[in-house]
Amino acid sequence: MQATVAPATEETFESLAQKVDEALSVVNTIDGHVKTKALDLKHAIEAFHKFALTKIVQKLKADPRGKELLFDLVDDPSVYAMLQLHGIVKPDLSTRINRVMDAVRPYMQSHGGDVEFVRVEGATAFVRMHGACNGCSQSAVTLRDGVEEAIKHNIPEIQAVEVLPNEPSPNLIQIESLTSAKNTSWVKGPAVAEIPAGKKMRFDTEDTSILIINVDNRLNAYRNACPHQGMPLDGGMLDAESCELTCPWHGFKFDAVTGECFSAPQAQLESFPLRIEDGHIWVRPN
Questions:
Q1: Where in the chain is the domain with CATH 2.102.10.10?
Q2: Domain with CATH 3.30.300.130 in the chain
Q3: Number of Cβ atoms within 10 Å of the Cβ of 228
Q4: How far is residue 269 from each of residues 57, 94, 150, 235, measured CA to CA in Å?
Q5: What class, spelled out in words, does domain 170-283 have in CATH?
Q6: Alpha helices in the chain (DSSP H)
Q7: Fewer CB atoms near the end CB (10 Å): N or C, the chain?
Q8: Does the predicted TM-score (pTM) go above 0.90?
Q9: CB 234 within 8 A of CB 190
C-alpha cells in the first residue's frame, strides 16, 4: 500500500523572516572564529543575492512593461522587504528623515532639546526645534547644525534643511504662571500677534513699565529699566540673530532670552512671569 504524503504547509513571509532572525540570534551567541565565518557566509550570500536582484530590477526598469510589473511587485510586502534589505529600493523620504530624527533625538534630549520633522518639499526638509534647540545661543546653533548635517549625510537627496518657527510661547513657564488670569496680580498685555519674532514692545501698568521681547518666538517680560541707572530700555536696539538687547543710554548689552548682562555680569534684567491665554499676553509684575 502506497503511503500518502501530506502536502507541505506553505510558510508565510512573517514566519520565514522570524526563522532568519532566530538563526542570526543563535549565530550572535557564538564566540570567536566560528561566529566570524558564519557572518562572513551571511554577508557573502546577501552580496550574491543583491547582485542578481539588482540585475533583475535594472532589466525591468529598462522596459515600460517591466517597470509597470516592478511597481506591482514592490507593492508586495515580502518583495519590498527583500529589495529594501539589499538597498535596491529605499523608503520614501519622509520615512527616512524620521529615522534620522529618531537616531539623533536621544542626543538632542540629553541637551534639553528636541526636533520634529514637519514635511519635505523637493530637496528641502522642514523641521521644528524645541527646548534648548530653539534659540540663538551657541549651543542651540550647534544642535541645529548637527541635525542638518545628520540629514544631509544620511539622505543625499536632501540639499537643504529649513527650521520653521514655533508658535510664540513663554520662554520659562513658572508654577505660579498657571493660576487664573483673574488673579488681581496679573495684568493683561498686548495680543501675541502684535509682537512678531525679533520685535519688542513696551506696555505700562499703573505702577510698572514692562518690556516684552520676542526672540525666536520665545516671549520674555522684563522691567523696562536698565539695571545700570534705571533708564528705560524700550528705545534700545534688539539684535534677533545674536539675541542681544542694547541699552540706548550707555550701551550696556543684555541677553534678550536670559536677561544676563554681557557688559557687567553683576547686572541682570528683572524678569516677570509671563503666560499666554486666548491669544493675549498676561504678565505678573513683581
A1: 170-283
A2: 93-164
A3: 15
A4: 65, 43, 37, 15
A5: mainly beta
A6: 13-28, 32-62, 64-74, 77-85, 93-110, 138-154
A7: N
A8: no
A9: no
